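> tool_call: predict_assembly(chains=two)
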Amino acid sequence: MIKTDIIIIGAGPIGLFTVFEAGLLKLKCHLIDALPQPGGQCSEIYPKKPIYDIPAYPEILAGELINKLLEQCKQFEPGFTLGERAEEIDKDADGIFTVTTNKGTIHRAPVVVIAGGLGSFEPRKPQLENISSYEEKGIEYIIKDPEIYRNKKIIIAGGGDSALDWSIFLANINADVTLVHRRNEFRGALDSVEKVRDLKNQNRINIITPAEIVKLNGKEKLESVVISKDDVENELKVDHFIPLFGLSPKLGPITNWGLEIEKNAIKVDTYDYQTNIPGVFAIGDINTYPGKLKLILCGFHEATLMCQSAYKIINPGKKNVLKYTTVTGIDGFDGTRKEAPKSVVQAINK
Amino acid sequence: MSDVNIKITDRKGKLHNVLAPIDMAMNVMEVIRSYELSPEGTIGICGGMAMCASCQCYITSNHELPIMSDEEEAMLSEAFNVTENSRLGCQISITKNLEGLEVTIAPEE
């Protein structure tokens, strides 16, 4: 079990800056994110895109912004639970929240901050009848253990990098791979496209384009799929169907947490960005209030104000006053200290 | 004149005649959002970077449109409910040439 002062759901830019602001108040944070790396959208979707409205940075790449935020909060030693989605929240009689992930990791803290941005990134599912009844019974959206596909009949659908890369990988472990794509062209790294072409020429991959999976069949598990090409339908026996259509953000389980939701976002009080559940805050793109702007810079401000209330919840009755880092410096939890160099004044004695 | 007339059919099939400014660097997705023709959180999720398909539209008039970028083409090749006239609304800037444009918002994924 992980115990901390503040559980932050979402390790994007706002979650990372919260670690810093909380650290100044001597509060320790632990971040949970469904993605395998910190940075949220900035790392996952647009790491190479420049951002022009971060104060004092005329231009900074999203990925670089994340690196700088990680560096800035490092001394406050944040904990990370990555690749896991926050699934459930409970409040004990003693006022401590327990947040459990989809993999069963338990986190406990008196304050929970939802900095989930657009939500958690989940695989985009094709709109096929009964698709959910075959999930994990022959249909997988994410390849966790490639070994289960060895010597099996596999259909991969999609036209991007992940469809190409997994087709190559699985063909190389002797899976019987059929790649189905709605268009004739594949859009991926040149190297991957060429490798797939080579494998096709060696008859090690079967490619069907322009085509689409239109029907799923099977009793207990998936047994065959129907592929439509040029308006002709063909049934193909398969062991696994792997649709790879990228990720899309969904609010997900947090919609069941009893939070007030408006416009697909969590309603907060602008005093401290607390939600309708005391002790649970929502900051960044995931919240809404009159005048809300979904900007990283606004999220930084929200994080800063939120931490003041978090301090009061964690340290009831204790006094606190705003301190400037220029005056007091920063004491890291790792024993480091940063402070302005003292100016050297020397008197000249006559 | 700094506005063009656009006909937008929302996801419920209702037609809206709206005025879109050509001097505010807006795109079709932003016009839809500014007139609240699709609830917040159901369109323009990625913020207009051609990185989600939530603003997919069907262009039903014969206007000359900006050429599709690689990013837009890649996204549409993975999106659902795509047809020949599919475009991402966020990639179509409002210009005076778009007077009379007709678009239908594609279903939500």
